[in-house]
Amino acid sequence: MRFSTKAISALVGVTLLTSLAACSTPPADTPSTDPTTEEGTFAKNSDTLVFAVLPDHEGADQDAQPFADYIAAVTGLTVEFYPAVDYVAVIQGLASGQIDIAQISAFTYFQSQNAGADIEPIAAQVTKEGAEAGYYSVALANPAWTGSTLKDFAGEEVCFVNPSSTSGYLVPSGSLDAAGVPTTDVTPVFKDKHDLSAEAISRGEECMIGFAQDIDADPYTTAGTLKEVSRVLVPAAPIALQAGLPASLKATLFGALQGMTQADFGKHGIAMNDFIQGGWFGYQAVDDAYYQSIRDLCAALPDVDNCKS
Questions:
Q1: CA-to-CA distance for 12 and 188, rounded, in angstroms?
Q2: CB 210, CB 178: distance < 8 Å
Q3: Contacts of 282 (CB under 8 A, 6+ apart)
Q4: Distances (CA, A) of 180 to 154, 183, 234, 255, 302
Q5: pLDDT given for residue 5 in this prediction
């Protein structure tokens, strides 16, 4: 069943406003022999929080270091990065309890739950002061491409980010389907990271068209090395935690992260990097229902493998 462009907007745009990116083997490290407390369970031990971020762009862990430092400051615990080599490693890590808290995407939140993870969203990313939570999936084209709309993607090689990416695959699949181009009518070229997808399209060697999130797409379109075909609002990326963590720790994390802004880094003497200054302003409180639009979109796209349980 194909959804109209208006329907796709309802699924990933209106819900956002009204309800307010091959398998891998998990790391060999095993949890502590005694990771439990009277109140809850930790991935490693009660002195440590294991923190994961999606490796959706080069240097993702380094860009997320201020968040790790902030979590350590407000909880008094050691924060360790989970060595995620790809999206699947994060999904599996959450499902197996090897990760305590993670900055993920709407689609990987959905997939983690499908894989058996008992996780709760704390808050979702706000990119600019005064904005609602959310960001954009941008359809891009090399300036030499002769097409003009998503309909013209049919029969072409299309650069996507990763089969588990929200703005780099799931939402683009919905946008194409709404334009009458099911994903079976294109040849996917997965670049695994948003910046690599935009770069590949600008080179025009592997693909002349494709998708990336706005923070990676906009510098190219502003410079004129890529042209924008369309953009769709995407449910904001959540920071989520294991439901089984101790209640008092969960309360601390919810209190410290919901409503957090750039100013909170300064209060703890944490320096902001270019990534934060350029594309992250704060966190807005959200709940599980906020991500219903992702479930609805997956239900409408049965050919997308990662939508399946």
A1: 22
A2: no
A3: 125, 126, 129, 259, 260, 261, 262
A4: 9, 10, 20, 45, 15
A5: 39
Do both 147 and 91 map to the same domain? no
Q: What angle do CA 14, 137, 172 make, to 5 degrees?
A: 90
What is the separation of C-alpha 265 from the centre of its chain, rounded to a whole number of angstroms? 22
User: Is pTM, for the whole model, over 0.70?
Assistant: yes
Query: Residue 71 falls within a domain, yes or no?
Result: yes
Distance from the Cα of residue 56 to its chain's centroid: 8
Range of the domain at 266: 21-26+38-132+236-285
Residue 274: how many other CB atoms lie within 10 Å? 8
Q: At residue 213, what is the residue type? A: Q
Asked if the model's pLDDT at residue 24 lies above 60, the reply is no
Do 109 and 156 sit in the same domain of this protein?
no
Largest separation between any pair of C-alpha atoms in the chain: 64
- pLDDT band (50, 70, 90) for residue 57: confident
Q: What's the mean per-residue pLDDT of the chain?
A: 88
Each residue of 146-175: pLDDT tens digit?
999 999 999 999 999 999 999 999 999 999
Helix residue ranges, H only, 179-304: 194-203, 214-223, 247-257, 262-267, 274-279, 292-300
DSSP state of 41: B
Query: Quick one: angle between helices 106-114 and 292-300, nearest 10?
Result: 80
Name beta bridge partners: 218: none
Question: Do 52 and 122 sit in the same domain of this protein?
Answer: yes
- What CATH number corresponds to the domain at position 257? 3.40.190.10
